[in-house]
Design goal:
The structure holds two protein chains of two kinds. Chain A is built from seven helices and no strands. By secondary structure, chain A is mainly alpha-helical. In chain A, helix 1 (2-20) runs antiparallel to helix 2 (24-44) and helix 2 (24-44) runs antiparallel to helix 3 (48-73). Chain A is extended. Chain B has helices at 9-29, 33-58, 62-92. Classes of the chains: A mainly alpha, B mainly alpha.
Chain lengths: 200, 105
Amino acid sequence: MAAFWILGITLIGSAIWCITNTKPVYSVVALLLNFAALAAMYLTLNAEFLAVIQMIVYSGAILILFLFVIALLSSGVTPFSVGPNKLPRIGIPAVVVLLIALGFLTYAVNRVTANAFANTSPTSPVGPVGTAGVFGSVADFGKALFTTYLLPFEITALVLMVAVIGVILLAGDQAPYVASQKQAEEVRREMREAILRGGE
Amino acid sequence: MMSPMAVPIADYVGLSAVIFFIGVAGVIVRRNPLIMLMSIELMFNAANLLFIAFSRAWLHNAGHIFAFLVITVAAAEAAIGLAIVVTVFRTSRHVDVDDIALMKG
C-alpha cells in the first residue's frame, strides 16, 4: 500500500518533470526515473519478467537512443527552439482536454468495483515474486507466449522488421529525402567538426 | 486461490489516467519533437500499467503478453520517430514541429 503511493507520486512527479524541462537531456533523466519506478510497480503487481524487460528495453535501449539523437543534434548547432512556452496560445484546448480527462477518470474509477474479480480462476499458480513457475514468472510468461499467443509474437517480428527497414530508408546513408548530395556533405562536415570540438 | 490485491484496481486506473494525460499534455504543449516522442512513451507506459494491473486482478497472463507487444511497438515507434527527427534535421537544420510544413498541400 505504501509502495503504491510512493511509486505513484514518483511516477507522476517524474512525468511532469519530463514534459516541463527545457533541456531534453534532463527530460531523459526524468523519464529514466519514471521507467524505474514503473518497473518497481510491475514487481508489486507480480509481473517480474515484465519489470526486467521494462528496465532492459525502455531504460537500456530506448533512452540510450534518445540520448544519442540529442547528442547528435545538439552538438555545435542549436536546433532546439527554446522560445516562449506555447501554453497560453493553446489554453482553451488544454482546458477542454483536461475536463475530458477528468470526466474519463471519474467514470472509470466509478465503474470499477473492488470485488469484480472475486470469482476468477488464475491461469497459473500464484505465489510470491521470485518463486519458480508462479504467475508472472519467466516460465509462466514464456509458456503463454509460445503456445497460446504465438501468432501475436510472430507479428511482433514483422513489426520490428518494418521498423528496421524504415529506419534504414529514412536515416541510412542513401536516404532519399536529403535535398542534395552537396547539402548532405555540408551537414555531415559540420556535424563532424562539432563532434571534434567536443560539442558545446 | 485468489489472492487479493493490496491496492484497489481503481487506484491503478486513476494513476494510469493521470500519467496518460500528462503525456497528452506533453504532446499538445511542447514543440520539441524529442519531448513529444518521450510524451508518447509516457502514454504507452500508462497503457502498460493498466494491462498489468488488470492482469494481476484477473490473475490471467494475457495482459502480460499484450504489455510485451506494446513495449515492442513502442521500441519500433521510438526508432522510426527518431529517424524522422534526424532526417528532418539533415534537410531543414532546425527541429521545431511548427516550422515543418513539407507535407502541407
